[in-house]
Write a structure and sequence with these properties.
The chain contains 16 helices and 13 strands. The longest helix has 20 residues. By secondary structure, the protein is α/β, with parallel strands linked by helices. Helix content is 47%, strand content 13%. It has 2 domains: 184 residues, Rossmann fold (3-Layer(aba) Sandwich); 158 residues, Glycogen Phosphorylase B (Rossmann fold), CATH 3.40.50.
């Protein structure tokens, strides 16, 4: 298979792509495709639930990873430490020309640390995002990965400016767009398929809310989780709620996983199903970073239930930040009161995350960076 790395002057046997969660699989899919035979995929198992990983590979038509690790279900510190050690051994066994990590997960941080320890060029996809919230573990992960990276692939101008503000040189920054746009645009089911799905699920277009929650600030505190579920029951439209495994465990502990009026709780759904639901819902309700980006692709509003967000580009257009649960009912009521006008307005708002060519730009920048690296070390 011919790839952008096929250059007689560039001796690149493999590029290790390290990932371990559902969002990482989605956002790296285009890059993995473009790397072709030069890409060597290493799955950490951070999302070890089958519905959070295997089904996504199938939706994206990705082959099984070349290397499967199993670090899920551990504490953050143990997970990062264990993965750094195992990646170091893996890189020593088959040294890659470069390591690619994505985003702000424990897997991304571990991949960055292992690459840095072995002096392997590091490419960080979706670099430069900042919430400026030190209470968010992901903020620490992304900052460290950015400062270790030889090339920061930034999705937006804001992300570029964040990197520059931290004195990361322009030579280490490339503006690419966000790879989620590439994948969501390619996989979005046709309107007819979406309509059939709604019929099968007993839902009506623009007459249900799509909810996802998994962040510790919302689901680890039992009282807050109970308050959140209570609000979902009273939002005025049915809530379709694919439940993340860690959320499911907390719901079960509190006895909140039983059928409830106004809420349809289901296991995690496939990515194409999720995109269909997102494109047909009244609005989304989530604490996910990726959902904020996907909302800008499907042109639906999203209420972001979090203290802070590292994606300010969608605030005021697609996204409304609700740090306090007591403000959630009013935010939902406002959207429902102006729903048709909001949908019409957002239909004409371009996504701030690019034109669907981010994966291609990223791989081109990686190839050029490795050429430059090769010249420097000769």
């Amino acid at each position: 298979m011919t790839t952008l790395f096929d250059d007689a002057a560039l001796d690149v046997e493999s590029v290790a792509v390290v990932f371990g969660t559902r969002p990482e699989i989605i956002k790296l899919a285009g890059i993995i495709d473009l790397l072709g035979d030069r890409g060597r995929t290493i799955f950490s198992g951070q999302h070890f639930d089958e519905l959070m990983s295997r089904t996504v590979f199938e939706d994206l038509r990705l082959p099984s990873p070349d290397v499967m690790l199993a670090v899920g279900g551990q504490s953050r510190a143990r997970q990062i430490g264990d993965l750094v050690l195992r990646l170091e051994l893996e890189f020593a066994r088959q040294r890659p020309a470069a390591v690619v990590v994505q985003g702000d997960t424990n897997t991304a941080l571990a991949g960055a640390l292992a690459a840095n320890a072995l002096d392997i060029p590091l490419f960080h996809v979706e670099a430069g995002l900042r919430s400026f919230d030190r209470g968010m573990p992901e903020e620490h992960n992304r900052v460290v990965a950015d400062h270790l990276a030889d090339l920061c692939l930034a999705p937006t101008d804001q992300a570029v400016n964040n990197l520059r503000a931290e004195r990361i040189s322009d030579e280490r920054i490339a503006l690419t767009g966000n790879t989620v746009v590439d994948v969501a645009t390619r996989l979005m089911p046709a309107r007819e398929q979406r309509a059939r799905l709604l019929t099968d699920l007993g839902l009506k277009a623009n007459a249900f809310i799509l909810a996802t929650f998994h962040r510790p600030e919302n689901v680890d505190d039992g009282d807050r989780l109970e308050t959140l579920i209570d609000h979902l029951k009273r939002l005025g439209l049915p809530v379709f709620f694919p439940v993340h495994p860690r959320t499911r465990n907390h719901l079960r502990t509190r006895g909140l996983d039983q059928p409830a009026d106004g809420i349809v709780m289901v296991p995690p759904v496939g990515y194409r199903t999720f995109l269909s639901l997102a494109a047909e819902c009244a609005f989304l309700l989530s604490d996910s970073g990726g959902v904020q980006e996907e909302a800008s692709v499907v042109k639906r509003p999203v209420i972001v239930v979090r203290r802070s967000t590292e994606r300010p580009e969608v605030l005021g257009t697609f996204a409304t930040l609700v740090p306090s649960l007591r403000d959630l009912p009013a935010a939902a009521e406002h959207l429902l009161r102006n729903l048709a006008d909001t949908h019409r307005r957002l239909a004409d708002v371009p996504s701030p995350y690019g034109d669907g060519q981010a994966s291609l730009r990223s791989v081109r920048y990686m190839a050029q960076s490795l050429k430059d690296w090769s010249r420097r070390v000769r």
